[in-house]
Design the sequence.
């Protein structure tokens, strides 16, 4: 069993930055590609960043491209999301997710492991 736990969320003013962390425990050998998702009231859960296990390939949707950066430290079983120039529309619960794929995964259904989420609130 794999357990993922997010941290680093909070309240920040528009234009500010936050760094989210995700730590993994349990059968971490099952984790390869990783991603960050977010969900706000009235919206579907959406992918905001993804990273492969091999080669360091990443994916970002247009809504966050150039502002968010995903990285991983496999030696520490950790995943990070650096968020810069935050906007009020970035307000959401952010989730860490893992899959068994070695390549970048952009489909929500392909992720098998999920954290409980951390709240990010951006004030105007």
Sequence:
């Amino acid at each position: 069993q794999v357990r993922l736990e997010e941290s680093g969320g909070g309240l920040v003013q528009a234009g500010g930055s936050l760094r989210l962390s995700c730590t993994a425990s349990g059968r971490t050998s099952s984790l390869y590609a990783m991603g960050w998702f977010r969900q706000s009231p009235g919206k579907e859960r959406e992918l905001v960043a993804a990273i492969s296990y091999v080669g360091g390939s990443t994916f970002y949707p247009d809504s966050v491209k150039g502002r968010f950066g995903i990285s991983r430290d496999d030696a520490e079983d950790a995943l990070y999301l650096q968020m810069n120039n935050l906007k009020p529309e970035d307000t959401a619960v952010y989730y860490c997710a893992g899959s068994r794929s070695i390549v970048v995964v952009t489909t929500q259904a392909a992720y098998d492991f999920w954290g409980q989420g951390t709240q990010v609130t951006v004030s105007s």
Notes: The radius of gyration is 13 Å.
